[in-house]
Design brief:
Blueprint (H helix, E strand, L loop, with lengths): L1 E3 L2 E3 L2 H6 L5 H23 L14 H4 L6 H21 L1 H20 L5 H24 L12
Antiparallel strand pairs: 1-2
Helix pairs in contact: 2-4, 2-6, 4-5, 5-6
Protein name: DoxX family membrane protein
Keywords: Membrane, Transmembrane, Transmembrane helix
Organism: Terrabacter carboxydivorans
Amino acid sequence: MVTIGHRSVVSTAQHARAGRGDTAYQAYAVLRTAFVVAPIVFGLDKFTNVLVQWDTYLAPVLSRPLPVTPHQAMYAVGVVEVVAGLVVAFHPRLGALVVAAWLGGIIVNLLLVPGFYDVALRDFGLLLAAVALQRLATHYDPRPTLWPLRRS
């Protein structure tokens, strides 16, 4: 373990050894995997609508002013979600914040659509899990949150 200022940071070698018996690392790995796979799968599905017809989840009050149809707007949403999943894969400390912010936006959107309050509540649980991933990533991902924008 390396100490930077008042914080201890796990070295790459310790990170590799952390897995098997470290329950906190196991939780981190589960959350990281979930927040890589789910956004990418759901983002790609915005282009195919195999899982669900995603347009129905877009609040009319938000879609009406757009210069595109709700279906076309879902393409942009899909791209954002795939990128968010990739950011979690390559930099979980930052990616978890991106996913949490994105989920916050989704929750606001869902609260504007009558009948989707249960989905908004589920997404609030996912937002809390993304925050937990970010907190765990501060221990297991030694890079600064804004890396590579700001190097320490």
